[in-house]
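Known limitations

Files may contain more than one protein. Parsers should not assume a single record per file. Below, a two-record file is shown to illustrate correct handling: read the sequence, read the token line, then continue until end of file.
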Amino acid sequence: MAAHTPGLAGLTRDIAISLLAEREVMPRAQIIAARVAELIPGSAVVLYLLEGKQQPAWAHKAVVGDVTLHRKGSIPRNAGALGQACARRASLVLSGSSTPRESYAHLDVRRTVVSLGYAPIRHHGDVVGMIEVLTFDRPLDATVLHELDPLLDYAAVALTSAVGYEDERNGQFATINRLTQLYDLERSFNSTLQMDQLLPIITSKIAEVLEVEAVNLWMEEEEEGGLLLVKQHGGDTTVQEGMHLPKGEGIAGEVSDSGKGVIIFNPSDERLVRRNGGAEPPPVRTLIAVPVLSQNYQVGVLEAINRLDGRSFNDDDGFYLGTIAITAGSALHNASLLEAERKIEVLETLVEVSREITSTLNLDRVLQVVVNAPQRIMAYDRAAIAIEQSGKLQLKAISGKTEVVASDPQVRRLRDIVEWAADAGNELFVAQHGNQVAADRQETVAKFQEYFAASGSRAFYAVPLRDDQGLLGILTFESRNPNFLSDAHFEFIKVLAGQATVAVRNASLYTEVPFIGVLEPLIQKKQAFMRMEKKRRTALAIAAAALVLFLAVCPLPMRVEGEAVVAPLDTARIQAEVEGVVRNVYVKEGDRVAAGAVLADMEDWDYRGALAGAEAKYATAVAAMNQALAANDGGEAGVQRVQAEFWQSEVERARARLEHTKLRSPINGIVATARVEELAGHKLEVGDLFAQVVDSSRASVDVTVDQQDLPLLRSGEELALKLESFPTRKFHGRVTVVSPAGTPQGDHRVFYARAEVPNPDGALRPGMQGMGKVWTGWRPAGYVFFRTPAAWLWSKIWSWVGW
């Protein structure tokens, strides 16, 4: 066979040039195998490399000739003839007839093998690869393999450097991937400040990026000491959410005490054995635990349990989880600050409510404060309070309403459920999640299924108002959100109920105190009337009766009037979404624009350049991926696919930023910014206001209403509007909403009736003033004439006599 290897020196020079043209393992291995096959005509050649540090195994990198491999994966280092040649660390030739088939069982050969040759590829004395040669026509001479030594020297250097290049590249890709994951994790962790929402985000996201079976988050307990498992994600059966771990016990306790992370590789570690409790197979096979720090203080411990691929954790995983724990600690710190701030807000609200309800004996005022004041800290849709009077529970106050209309169907429905809740005698909380109503009794479930379906609420909480004299009433809260109450809210309501009980009892007793002195002036007037002459007395009686009849029977239109101000119904603020200089402005003040119209554009060279660069890199990554697929290089194709997906997302981001350089109007309307055309050439930062567009097809009119007239107003009432700009023209509209809260104006408070007025010709413009009148229906003449003075007189009498 030696005669078949001429010109080896020239071939090694050529192969060196060919190898330098390639940088990756697979192309270089294919070149080497092809040259070996040229040097040994009629042979089949397979090139292997040893991969893996802990358990090295043969991985084939190139195949030439009439042979294939049975298995896709790697071959154990000591298996068969490959292991025999590796152990010898020198060339080996075996006869095909005398060599058992099991020695090369990894090969799929359809021809009779005459001989097998193995030439190890050594680098610095260590075997890093193997060339396997099969001949089918004639035996292989061992000297031929020795003549391959110069080629093998080139191969060792070329393949080792290619492996190093690929390892470095893959390491860079892994680093970029983890940096991207850390960025996404930071955004996810900082997406909410609600502690109950943040905890599941932390555990689920960590489980996702680390690809583990379970993640546990332990938090330090300041009062009792030790750790509390506040959130668990996945299937770790050795612990349960809500479990308390005494100080210094368990793996988490060890990390908490030392402040250092722990990585356990071996399932037989005594710490895991104690945790698993002898279960077979052990639930926890490998584990990472790291401390969670916030502002240089340790606040908890994070545990990651069992990799999904079955391998053990390594130091890189421990470092990565430790980095994530820093981000998690920062997010937990921010959420804890919000919780502390809310607790302070709850206490301040409680003190303020307590001061308000104890500073007055006006029962209506007390009830209104109790049902409305908690809205400062609680997001409920409706609160109500019912008081027991004359042995019957009566609904006295509803949040957002100045009076309780007993005939209203919603009020009747609420009254029925409040009476039913009062019969229970204890506090009651019922919530509906999806189609399931959570309650302790089937009767309660059935009752609230019907009530929730009719009212639209999804949660109902009732607490009785009770003192040493018995049941005084009941306080209720309801919301469309089944989770609208936190533990702090429950505590707040219970304290509020106790204070409200005392305040309502005092106000109720005060209203029952008789004040006979008020009747004495009436008795004196009656005696003076009776001493008058009969004719005069009769005439006065007839006149008084006629006047009373007129005032009581004759209907007059009732109107509530007040100062009116016109505001646009819809105003859009066009703000810069990217930083840049305004290049062109296409509109001026007063121009009418359509939704989506471009008002101006900004200099976009940088953004166009960024888009072009991203598209070029995306095209390069796609081309590289396709080239790798064509070369049957699955690993490289996967890497390039990740690159292509990354640059594709960058292209989309760059295209979105380029589109943001065009400032568009989101609505149909009129440009309301003065001298907007002068903004050309100005630099805008992100969020800077460029212009305002107002919708002039309709207008919103705010009519100032005195608080004494507030009970007369209802949504849907007709509005007549006179403006100073159009003294001879009258505009008409309808009231859409009455403000639920008053606004100070001088020494008294006013409310606003907001009406929607059609404005097809654009005559109404924001800022116009005038007078508005709201028609509230027909009322008796006496009501129309004397309602305001009667209310004023009544308030004065009450302030004097307290009745």
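...continuing to the second record:
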Amino acid sequence: MKSIHTYITEKLNIKDINVNKDNIVGLGLPSGTLWCKYNVGATHGSTAESWYGNYFTWGDTKPVDVKKYDWDNYKYDNGNNKLTKYCPIDLTDYWGGSGKPDNKLELDIQDDMANANMTGTYKLPTKEQLEELIKNTTNEWITNYQGISGLNGRLFTSKTNNNTLFIPAAGYCSGDMDGVGYNVRIWSSLLYENIPVGAYALNADRHYIYLDKYNRRNGFSVRPVLYI
């Protein structure tokens, strides 16, 4: 099996790329997408909490401060629960910025929470990359991963090369912390076009796994992919 370094330099034709190869796993996906092994901010030590990492609202590169968490503190709120960036609908129900809505559906790289908080070439996964991950792996709910008490989550195993990717049940912030140890939520880079206060994210627990739309002000985990 080729190493990650060989895969990057030969198959992707990139000779000089700034990545931590110990934080990259190749799952043999059709797109060639390489996933990071850990959430942004995770130290992946001997406790479940060390694997969770930071929580981010969609498009805000600063981690959520749970004590100040509410819609009024969302980066792209004008103070009256109206959006000032990432809005394709010209209705006062949603748009509160200057001029016309910007019609942006994908996060700009400067607003990408993975790219802004990691040293290297990383970004949030697209909706298509999350769908590809689910389709091309088997996944199961794991408790006490690697023997760490309380470290629960979804383990994805490649159908192509049997490499694995673990995403912990870090829960989420929605006013207060919820779902810790029981729920996986990770952001995609795609806005929900029909109701732009929402964006797509992966949602999983012990019973199900799917993509859905969630309010952008929620604090979810970020699991990067290699940005090429």
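Parsers that stop after the first record will miss the second one. For reference, the second record is described as follows. The chain has a mean pLDDT of 90.
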